[in-house]
Design a protein that fits this description.
Elements: E1 4-7, H1 25-35, E2 41-43, E3 49-51, H2 53-61, E4 66-71, H3 77-93, H4 98-111, H5 129-137, E5 152-153, E6 160-161
Parallel strand pairs: 2-4
Antiparallel strand pairs: 1-4, 2-3, 5-6
Helix pairs in contact: 1-2
Length: about 160
Amino acid sequence: MEIVDMPIGQIKPYKKNPRKNEKAVPEVVKSIKEFGFRQPLVVDSSMVLIVGHTRLLAAKELGLTNVPVHIASTLTPALVRAYRIADNRSHDRSEWDVTLLNEELGELFEMDEKFDIEFMDFGDFGPGEEKEKEIKEGSKELDEEEFSEFDHKCPKCGFEYDS
C-alpha cells in the first residue's frame, strides 16, 4: 500500500457522507497532537475522500498543510461506496471488553502515572478526577462503600471503572 504526503487542499470531502463526524473532531485533534497522524486518509482516484472524514476535519482544525493519504485507485465506484459505508458501520458494531480495557488502562497507569487518559474520552469508565487522584496518590484509604457503584477493578493497580 502506497501512502503519499498530500496537500490538504487537494482532498475533497465526500458531499454525501452519511456519517456526522463533528462531535468526534476534538478527540481526534487531541489524538493527533499526542500520537501524530498515524492513519492515512483514503481517497479515490479523483481525490474524493472515502474514509477519514473526521481525521480530515481534525487536520484542518490543527492547521496542517499536508496529510498522509492512500489513493485507492483500483476500487470501482461501487467498491468505493461500499467501503465508505462499511468502514463507518464497523465502529457502531464494536464493543469494549471492559475487563481487558481495565487491564490496559491499569497497565498504562503503571507505565506512566502522569499519562492523562482524559483525551481518550474514558471519563465514563473511571471514578472521577478526585477519586482517581486519591487512588494514584494513595492519599486516602478508600472503603468499599465509596466504590459500591463501580463493578470493575484493575487487578494490577486497583483502579476501579464503571462499566
